[in-house]
Amino acid sequence: MWFLNNPARLHKEREAVTKLISTEDWLKLADWKLNNDTKLCFVADIEVHGRYYPIIMLYPTNYPASPPTVCPREVNLHWSTHQYRSGELCLEWGPDNWHEKVTGADMLVSAHKLLEIENPAEEDSPQIVARSRHSLTLGQELRFNHFRFIADAPLTSYTRSLPEKSSGTIQFQVMSSRENVVAFIVSFSPLNGEIWCHSILPPELKKTTNKIEGYFFKTNLEADALKLESMDSPFSVLEAHGYDISQLKSTSTNLALFIDKSGGLHLFLTSNEKKWKRSAQVNINSNEENSRLLPQFFNLNSKTVGIIGLGSAGSKIAISLARTGVRDFLLVDDDVFLQENICRHELNWEDVGQHKVDGITHQLKLIAQDVNVKSYCFKLTGQESAGIVDSILSQLGACDLIIDATANPEVLNQLSTVACQQMKPLVWFEIYAGGIGGMIARFRPDQDPDPITTHSSLHEYLESLDLQEINGTEDYVTVNSEGEPIAACDADVAVIAANATRMALDILIEREPSNFPYSLYLIGLTREWIFTEPFHTIPKDLKNVQSIPTELEVSEKETNESLEFIEQLILKQKNDNLSTD
What is the model's pTM? Predict the structure, then answer.
C-alpha cells in the first residue's frame, strides 16, 4: 500500500485530480475507491463529443515506480487503436517514458485527448488514428513471431550477387526446440550453377538441428509484393507476375525463399501442404545435492532470486547461482540473442535468434531437475503495458533477492523504489568500458543506504578526485591512449559477474558478519582511471551517509488527512462488499 507509506505523494495525486475536476467539464461522476486487491482507484466518465466513456484509473502497487493504468470500466470494450489486449489505453506516458513528476491527472488528460482524436463527433466521419510514440525493440517486435529466419551478412551478400530469375534448392538447418522455430540456410544449389555453402556456421550446430530442403527464386519484384503473411501456394505470386517456375518441384518442399528486387529475403513455411506462412526475419549485422557445495549453501533451494537483464553478466550470474544451489528464478529481459553476443555470453550458436530469457531458462533447467523459472520477455522501462510491468515489479518485490544486471539508471531507480517499499535486498553493478574494471553495490533494508543515495555518494566521491564517472555500456567498448578500440572480454565480464554473485550469495545465506563490510566496491582490472594496478579494489564506507529524500515533506495535518481519506475508502469498500453480498 504505497499510499500509506507515501502520504506526500497521495496528497499530490488528490490535489492534482481535484484541480482537474474543477477546471475541466469533460470529467464527470468522479470518485475514489479501493478495489478488492486494496489498490487505489479513480473512477469517472470522460465526455467526448456528447458521448460518455466510463473509465477506471488504477494506481499500481509499486507507485510511483510505474504509471497508473486507464481502462474501460467494462471488459471487452474497444475504444481506440492505441489499446492493449487487456483493455488498457496506451497513453502519452508509459513504462518507457514515465517519470515521477507525471500524475494521475496527466494520465486522465491524455486519455481524454486520445478519445477526442480517435472518436469524431459525427458517427459517419472517417476514424482518425492518433500519432504513435511507439518505439519497439527487436525483442518486442519478435515476441509473437515464433518462426524466425536468420539472415546474416554472408548470406545476404551471396543472395544479392545472384542474377535475376536464379532458382534452385537450398538446405536448411532448423531448430524447433524450446519456444521458437529458427531456420539457418546452410547451402544454395542453383540450377546450372555452383553450390554455395555458409562459411561460419559451426559443424556442431548440425547435430542439434533438423535438415530440411527447400527452394529459392531470385525475382525483380518489389518487396511489398512478397510481404504476404500467408498464401495458398508459395509460387502463386511468381506465376501471377509471369515467372516460369516449371523447373521447380514446388509440391515436394515445406520451405520457399524469395529474393526481392533490392535483395530482401522472404521465407515461407508450410506444414502438411496447408497454407504457407511468412517467417519473421532476424537480421544479424538430478535431486541429489552437489557434494562439492559447502553446507552453508544447502538451503539456497528455498530462495527465489529475481534477475533483470540476461546479458553477458546477468547470464553468468544466473547460471552460477543455479550451480550453487538456487532453484527458483524470476527472469526479466526483452532482448534477442545474436551471433555477435557469443564472445561474452553464456549462450551459444544454438540460441541465436532466441530471446535471451528463453535461452537462459533452458540452460538453467539443464543444471538441475528441480529448477523452476518464471520468465518475462518484457522491457520494464519500455513500451509495455503498465499493468503487466507493475505485476512483474510486484513479483520481483516478493523475491528474496533482486539483481539489477542492466546497468540502466532508469531500471535502477525503478527497482530501488520496489526494494525500499518491499524491504528486499538489491544487488547491482556496472562493467566499465574497455575492461578497466567495474562497480558492485548492494542494498540491505535497515543496513545499507538506499541505491539512489549510494549512487549519488559514488558520484560525489569521484567529483572530489576531479574524475568523471565511467558509465557501463552495452558493448563495453572504449579507446586507449593510441586511439585504438578496446573492449571488455569474457574474462573481464566474468570477474565482475563472479564478485556480484559472491555478494548475492552472501546476502542469500544471511551470513553474519557479512564477508563484505562495505556496501560499494570499485574493482580494477587494469592500471587505468582510478585504479593503480589490476585487482586494485576500492571499498566505500557509506554507513554514515544520509539518505536522499525522494518526496517533499508534508505537515502532520496533511498526513492525518491522507490517513483519514484511506480509512473512508476502506469503510466504503466494506460497505460495497456487504451490499453485493
Answer: 0.78
| Separation CA 192–CA 361 (nearest Å) | 46
Q: Which of 400, 420, 372, 427 is nearest to 547 (CA)?
A: 420
Q: Which residue has the higher pLDDT, 547 or 56?
A: 56
Tell me how far the alpha carbon of residue 51 is from its chain's centroid.
37
End-to-end alpha-carbon separation of the chain, Å?
25
Residue appearing with cell numbers 550477387:
161
Banded model confidence at residue 403, pLDDT cuts 50, 70, 90: very high
Residue 288 has pLDDT above 50, yes or no: no
Give the neighbor-by-neighbor strand order of the sheet with 437-443: 372-376, 328-332, 304-308, 401-404, 426-431, 437-443, 520-524, 537-540
Closest of 58, 79, 78, 80 to residue 69, by C-alpha: 58
Closest CA to 456 of 422, 421, 499, 409: 409
Which residue is listed with cell 559447502? 294
CA distance 442 to 346: 24
**Residues 369, 387: Cα–Cα separation, whole Å:** 33
Mean pLDDT is lowest, of 60-74, 351-365, 433-447, 565-579, for 565-579
Concatenating the DSSP letter of every residue in 498-515 gives HHHHHHHHHHHTT-SS-S
Q: Look at residues 134, 126, 62 and name the one whose alpha carbon lies nearest to residue 91.
A: 134
pLDDT for 200 equals 79
pLDDT per position as a tens digit, 138-172: 888 788 777 888 888 888 899 999 998 888 899 98
Class of residue 43 by CB neighbours under 10 A (exposed 0-12, middle 13-18, buried 19+): middle
- Torsion angle (degrees, nearest 10) of CA 416, 418, 421, 424: -80
Query: Is pLDDT at 287 greater than 50 in this prediction?
Result: no
Angle at 385 between CA 71 and CA 17, to 5 degrees: 45
Helices (H), 325-355: none
> How far apart are the C-alpha atoms of 105 and 115, rounded to whole Å?
16
pLDDT band at 444 (very low <50, low <70, confident <90, very high): very high
Sign of CA dihedral 371, 372, 376, 380: negative
Ordered DSSP codes for 290-318: PTTS-GGGGGGGG-EEEEE--SHHHHHHH
> Rg of the chain's alpha carbons, rounded to an integer?
28
- The identity of residue 562, as a single letter, is S
Helices then strands, counting H and E runs in the chain, come out as 15, 24
Strand positions, DSSP E, 489-550: 520-524, 537-540
Closest C-alpha to 181, from 210, 146, 212: 146
pLDDT tens sequence across 488-535: 899 999 999 999 999 999 999 999 999 999 999 999 999 988 999 999
As given in the structure block, the three cell numbers for residue 548 are: 536522499
